[in-house]
Hints:
The complex is a heterodimer of chains A (405) and B (443). Chain A contains three helices and 21 strands. Chain A is mainly beta.
Amino acid sequence: MHKLLLFLILPIQLLSQGYQVNLQGQVSQGMGGAGSALMQDGSALFFNPGGASFIHKNEISLNVTPTFGNSTFLENNTNSIAHTTSPVGTPFSAYGIFQIKDSSKLKLGMAIYTPFGSTVEWEDEWAGRFALTRLKLLSIFFQPTVSYRLTDKIGIGAGFIYSYGKVNLQKDLPIQDASGEYGHAELDGSGNGIGFNVGLFLDLTKHVNFAITYRSKIDMKVDKGIATFTVPSSLEDKFPSGNFSSSLPLPSVFTFGLGITPNDKLSIAFDGNYTDWTAYDTLSFDYENNTESLDDTKSPRKYVGSIAARLGVQYKATDKITGRIGFTYALSPVIDRYITPETPDANRLNWTIGMGYKISDQFSVDASLLFTQFKREATNEETGLSGTYKTRVWAPGIQINYTLK
Amino acid sequence: MKNSIYLIAAISLITISCKPKFKIEDPSFGEMNPSSYVALGGSSTSGYSDGAYHLDGQENSYVAILAKQFEEVAATSFNQPLASATGINLDGNSRLIMGYKTDCKGVNSLSPVRVAINGDNTILGANIYSSGPFNNIGVPDLDITKINTPGYGNSASGTGNYNEFYSRMASDEVNGTILGDALTQNPTFFTVRLGEQDILTYASSGGTKSMPATNGAAGTGFDGSLDEVLSVMSGTGSKGVIATIPDVTNFPFFNTIPFDGLVLDASQVTTLNAVFNGTGVSFQVGKNPFIMLDPNSPPSFVRQMLPGEKILLSIPLDSVKCLGMGTINPFSDKYVLTLEEIDSIQTKTNEYNTIIRQQAGNYGIAVVDLAEFYSSLKAGTVYNGISLSTEFVSGGAFSLDGLNLNPRGQSMVANKFLEAINKTFNANIPFASSIKYPGIIFP
């Protein structure tokens, strides 16, 4: 356990790309993100706490996926173009899974992962500067987990989630001073929330597994955020800097999974997710000091529930080398008139490949590569910003697994 | 494992420079050709804004912005009779900017102020046609019936028949005409924004000046004068666009001071009720309508303003605050639009617009519906996260004179023209980015 603790306190950068980030393990990432019914490593704690009890080893895994996301915006009518200058995201996860002595049925585990987050930064003076210049949203989930094998065929598990998050939102204000400089608003805060992750794993036959999991919604509440306004001096009293409060829902996810293992070498995984994005109806900011120019804001988001289908195939070429391939098709939760530059989202097809390499009995490494690009033309109802967003994401990732003797 | 790291590093390098790209259709003029573009109109076309004729306003008039957008397709030239940054108006004043002003009660507050004590007197008086001809022959305070009248640039013609701004840019101050100066440029393309100025001249004088008759021959009525302009301009086969006229009574100039903005305490009420005893006017604590002169309201010939009536921004506010203007010194007619005057403005606007649409149809000229654009401003609109309305200053679209648009508003008008041009002439001219044009500048 000491080794595990050591890993937990390593300083790890918490940036990530895209509001929901499905990069929680290289094995799954190589297979289109599927894997709730294919228990292979410690990431089971995330994908299916019920299946963790079917992992027959004590293992620690560390996983990171540098994410290179670039969006380009083409404004309707003016043909003006803007690019994002977002930094590289580094969603990561760490898993430790352990068997309690004398009880082969009970597993304990700790999962740390970043399932939501986004850093989007647009180039200076872009057409949407009064809607957004930069959004940095970080969340980290800590999930201690218990998994129990009821019978040889049924496993159940539950994890308690404590999440911590930070948000930093910036935009320019359409108020100009004599030198032509525009005003600027920065909202900065942190918050936390709690939830749970439960799962059921069924080892139906030698060749077919089945999974159902549910991760609850978590409301990230920001209480004493700090709002800083930079405006021409004559308007400073109308835009007082001070505290604000807000709340951001991290929606629940329901997953159905199927794992098929025709033979020792081949595995096929299918996952279907339903993410209840209806929780994200409105983004509100409640300012402590209101003035005639500074009202509390309520921006409609009106997200709709969305589904994603994931399919992956894995082939064990040799004892040491495993190859993986897969894809995801995910529907966007954002409807046209609420598309914003913070999440220029669209229905998307992700392509993934991956491989695993067993270095020794104790060490193994997995790597994957995800590619997706998508496009969305929309006019936002609240800001009037109208144009087409094109986004391309490359996410190469690597994971190191250490099996304890 | 080392290999994997190298692989990741290599992929990282490739992807960093990999931004999504767009294929953009080549811009084009379609069936129009702005190689010789002439803009006709009144104050708003000339670039008059912030209460004066000045350089910044000229460079950011909707016609100058249109010409700039034409440049996105191909090189074109657009020559303007540029003035100085200080600018001037007919009262000899410079342009307005936002600043601080101390009123008669000693209260210092954010307010439009003149950029200089005096306007730039060198602007008017000297003819600058030697640097012409001018593509923008928009003339502040233009009277449409004088657009083809020789002598409009000649001071000898006398008040009402003479325009100092035209005199400055005329090819010939004695014999030249605006329409003639347009024609000598062999225009291949033209924009027309006429009639709005005639209505504004009436409205901003509180109804003390007159509007041209709707029907009448060229030089007398609106329809004859416009018909002459359009037949002459389109006669050479050039393409053109004409704008409809908005309801100018929605402009901030007429809607900033409320008719019932007279707030009184008990002692003021007692005093005023004593003064107005027997006139039929009485006051109460709190909000009251201001008092105005009305020749149709015997025997005292004063009355309270009615809901819907408008006080003009030209009113001397210090006199209202400290000298009893609007109470013991009732407002005179030039500071007020009565219900009757508002009605005649709106009727005239509708009549002119009917003629504009009719004649545009006759001559195959594209119509840009500015009336609709200004109504959407009145209702409040949002552009790229900027809220715009017809509120004075905070509305963000009008300049500080409350009558003409600021550069951001002008660019939006330019885009309305481009919308009509692109549609009618199968052109593909990119719109102006209105966020690049300033709204109101605050100290």
